[in-house]
Amino acid sequence: MRRSPRPLREPDAGRSPDRPALPPLRLRTGIDLAEVARVEKLMATQPELQERVFTPRELAYCRRRKRVGEHLAGRWAAKEAVLKCLGTGMARGMEWTDIEVVNDRGGRPSVRLYGEVEAVARSLGMHQIEISLSHSGGLAVAHAVMVCLPDPPDTTEPERTTDTEATDTEAT
Question: What pTM was computed for the model?
Fold first, then answer.
C-alpha cells in the first residue's frame, strides 16, 4: 500500500488565521510507593501521627474499609506523589493535611489542596490535578498528574543599554 505524500490533516486545519495557536499545557507528574506494613506500624506506634498526616475525613473513610492499612498507605503515597508534582517536598509552612484525598460516590479518588500546598500549586499555574491509587501485595502506589496552564508570555522588555553604558560598566 502506498503512503500519502502529505499528512491527512494540515497542522493548522480548522484554525482561524487571525487567532494564534495556544501554547501547550504543561504537565507535572509524581509517583510514590508505600509499604502497607510500614504505614500500619507507624500508625500503631505513633497514634498522634494519624492526625498530623490524615484529615478527619480521610481517617473516617479509611476506618470504614475492610483493609484500613491499605487505604491509609494509598493516601500516604498520594500525598507524597502530589509533593513530587510540586517539586518541593514538604517545604516550610506545608502540612500533610494540606493535601486531602477524597472519593466521589463511585469511589474515584481526587485531591483537594489547602494552605501553603495550594499556594505553591497555584504559583506553578495549576489548572487541575488527577490521581490514581492502587494497592496489592503489601504495597500501595499513587500517581499524580498536575495540569498547569501555559506560562504567560513575557511582556517585559529587556533593559536597553547603549554601547557607552556597556563599555563603562565593563571598565569598572
Answer: 0.74
